[in-house]
Design brief:
Its main location: nucleus. The protein has about 120 residues and is an alpha+beta fold. It is about 40% helix and about 20% strand. The protein has one domain: Gyrase A, domain 2 (2-Layer Sandwich), CATH 3.30.1360.10. Strands 1-2-4-3 form a four-stranded antiparallel beta sheet, covered by helices on one side.
Amino acid sequence: MANAPDRFELFLLGEGQQKVTTREDTRTPNTLYFVIEKEDHTIGNLIRMHLVKHPEVVFAAYRVPHPLVPNVELRVQTTGKITPKEAVQQVIQDLLHQLSTLGQNITREFELKRMAMEDGR
């Protein structure tokens, strides 16, 4: 495609580019916009799904502004007991823990299957 960026531009940050930037929503209290560079619907929807389950989050949504620009805009509003930044940090910590546990479980199952195959020789 003539307008498509080079593949490496879809996942490598540019010189001085930050992974996440924020800006305040001045129209709505306790609301921040997070722009996550070099990501797509996968991370946007994953974070949003967990944010809406958080008891202090009033609203969470994401969008990908343009299909050829690899970034996600996440909008988060909280009750005010915690900040949107704290809610996102808590959710990401929880997701990292879940992914770590999943990785350990997959590794354990793989090792069990490998040992069973070796015993069956």
